[in-house]
Amino acid sequence: MSNSNPIANSWGERVKSELAQLDVKTLGSVGVLLGGRSGEREISLMSGNGVLEALLSKGVDAHAFDPGLRSPTELASEKFDRIFISLHGRYGEDGTIQGLLELLNLPYTGSGVLASALSIDKIATKQIWLSNGLSTPDFEELTSSSDWDSVVEHLGLPLIVKPAHEGSSLGLTKVKSVEELPAAYQLAAGLDKKVIAETCIIGDELTCPLVGQGNSAEALPVIKIIPPQANYDFHHKYFSNETEYLCPTGYLDNVNIAIQELALASYRALGCRTWGRADVMLDQKTGKPYLLEMNTSPGMTSHSLVPMAAKAAGVEYADLVLWVLSQTLLGAGSASI
Ligand SMILES: Nc1ncnc2c1ncn2[C@@H]1O[C@H](COP(=O)(O)OP(=O)(O)O)[C@@H](O)[C@H]1O
Ligand SMILES: [Mg+2]
């Protein structure tokens, strides 16, 4: 990365020096929320167990709490001092658990109520981005009374149909003909009340992690994802060893910087905090990047992307986890939705 890059050159160094001064005892008793009730429960268990192990290895007094097995209201009687949210999807990444933790006055990792609720909703997210002049594929909300021909006319083929609030590519279809559209809608509508159809961007699949908040937020190195047959589905996200990840991407600096700037602007526009990850497609014909979605509780499995970019920036998995948690000491997660 060139020196002209305004983005994230020294984050790794700063993390190391901040952690060198951190006394983990000041973190107190930490609840790691994992599992939960969303379609991404299994992924969250993998993320959360990784996080728990990392915190324990750093000497943090950390304890698992699974709001899929226990009522989240029991958090009120646990004696936690702060919370690491390792939940993905609904009831974990969508502002609801964040709202409960606000009410309990328990500092928690990551984005607040509003940024979480906006980011879980792919349509609300895109409306915020468009109002900030940020590029994202054309889209429509689908309903059972949508006119399939006019959807195809508007968005072209192939197009993508997906639930607005799911993650991990659940319920997602790449539609290649108008005849496939009703079934794709039914599949997505089975998982979510809100369904989105989007123009399919053909090109490279990228993701860019973001750290920090507001004007001091920064972008980490971009990762290029090369799934087999260009199909980055549930299996190829978490389990397959056939997916290839490039970090650095191999692009020229100006390409990386354009992607980082777009991702950073998308993170700031949503008001995200501490960490997040913007998924981006790079149009192979025009070279233009398009924002797909913002993840506010990024995966922390062995195949996960934020740890990969953090490593490229010089920060190992356990240090990343501890740094994210340590941000709750700075007032994040208290009375700031
Ligand atoms: N508009 C699109 N154009 C091209 N590929 C897409 C598009 N939308 C989704 N995809 C593909 O599906 C994957 C999952 O979509 P995404 O919007 O990131 O939702 P989630 O990860 O929450 O399931 C993307 O990583 C990409 O491979
Ligand atoms: Mg995604």
Verbal overview:
By secondary structure, this protein is of the alpha+beta class. 33% of the residues lie in helices and 20% in strands. The protein is built from eleven helices and 13 strands. Strands 8, 9, 10, 11, 12 and 13 form a six-stranded antiparallel beta sheet that branches. The protein has a four-stranded antiparallel beta sheet with strand order 4-7-5-6. Strands 2-1-3 form a three-stranded parallel beta sheet, covered by helices on one side. β12 and β13 form a beta hairpin. The site of magnesium ion has 2 residues, from loops.
Helix and strand arrangement:
Layout: H1 11-20, E1 29-33, H2 41-57, E2 61-65, E3 82-85, H3 96-103, H4 113-120, H5 122-131, E4 139-142, H6 148-155, E5 159-163, E6 173-175, H7 181-189, E7 195-199, E8 203-213, E9 218-219, E10 223-226, H8 234-238, E11 244-246, H9 253-270, E12 273-283, E13 289-295, H10 305-312, H11 317-326
Parallel strand pairs: 1-2, 1-3
Antiparallel strand pairs: 4-7, 5-6, 5-7, 8-9, 8-10, 8-12, 10-11, 12-13
Bound molecules: adenosine-5'-diphosphate (ADP) and magnesium ion (MG).
Adenosine-5'-diphosphate (ADP) binds at residues 137, 160, 166-169, 172, 198, 200-201, 205, 232, 279, 281, 292-293.
What is this entry, summarized?
The chain has 337 residues and is of the alpha+beta class.
Notable traits:
single chain, binds adenosine-5'-diphosphate, disordered N terminus, D-amino Acid Aminotransferase, Chain A, domain 1, globular, alpha+beta, binds magnesium ion, 337 residues, 11 helices
How many strands appear in the DSSP assignment?
13
Write down the CATH topology of the largest domain: D-amino Acid Aminotransferase, Chain A, domain 1
* Head-to-tail CA distance between termini: 34 Å
Strand content: 15-25%
Overall outline: globular
